Amino acid sequence: MFLNTSLQFESFVNKLTKRLQKPLPGIEAQLKLVPAYRAELLKMRKPDKQARQSAVMIMLFPEDGEVHTTFIQRNTYDGVHSGQIAFPGGRHEETDPSLEFTALRETEEEVGVPTSLIKPIGSLTKIYIPPSNFDVLPVVGYLDAKPDLVPDPSEVSGVFTVSLKHLVNPETCQLQPIKLANGMQLEVPCYMANGYVIWGATSMILSEFIAILNETGL
Fold it and tell me: Packing angle between helix 6-20 and helix 201-216, nearest 10 degrees?
């Protein structure tokens, strides 16, 4: 995924767009990064009409000759996702015409990237998050250049970018101890990037996305 020219980034985007139109790796790819205690629950999970709908944005762009994506760190608060690393995104509002729009709107609100700059090209498999009862649609979009990232402190505590080259490196996927909001400590499968532990739903989304990248040789 090393880019010498803008044409190579365009070729990358075209190949990925075509792949996202085909059947996705789905839950089997997601489950590779789910903690063992939750795997069986997710396998048995039935559609929940009461689940809250949300969407996140896997935002791709060229930076320093490689394709990068953006992550946020959530603010510390009294909740199950306090301080976690995630893709920009959030809850679907009644005024949102689609979940794709939700991902675009939330990305602008959280990291300051105008919705008009991001070009959506598809989505991954929806993922259910039991602790917060959210159904999340991961939307994939791209920009022709690295955007100015201006995190909103009322929304997130920080933002950083990671190259896809780093994420697809098998050594990036590890087991690390984490502490849950209830104080319980667990060892979970995760991705390590910029010193951060990417685990939970975000790592499951990444697992499916990486499976697509590896499968297509991107």
Answer: 110
Q: What class, spelled out in words, does domain 6-216 have in CATH? A: alpha beta
pLDDT, one tens digit per residue, over 11-27 is: 999 999 999 999 999 98
| Helical segments of the chain, H only | 6-20, 27-30, 36-44, 99-111, 164-168, 201-216
DSSP 8-state code for residue 146? P
The three-state secondary structure class of 162 is strand
Q: Which residues of 39-63 are buried (b: 16+ CB within 10 A; e: fewer)?
A: eeebeeeeeeeebeebbbbbbbbbb
State the Cα–Cα distance between residues 54 and 98, nearest whole angstrom: 10
Given a contact cutoff of 8 angstroms between Cβ atoms, the answer to whether 190 and 175 are in contact is yes
Asked if 126 contacts 197 with a C-beta cutoff of 8 angstroms, the reply is no
Residue from 71, 67, 42, 66 nearest 56 by CA: 71
Decide if 73 contacts 196 (C-beta within 8 A).
Answer: yes
> Which band of pLDDT confidence, cut at 50, 70 and 90, is reported for residue 3?
low
Extents of the domains making up the chain: 6-216
Looking at residue 184, what is its pLDDT?
72
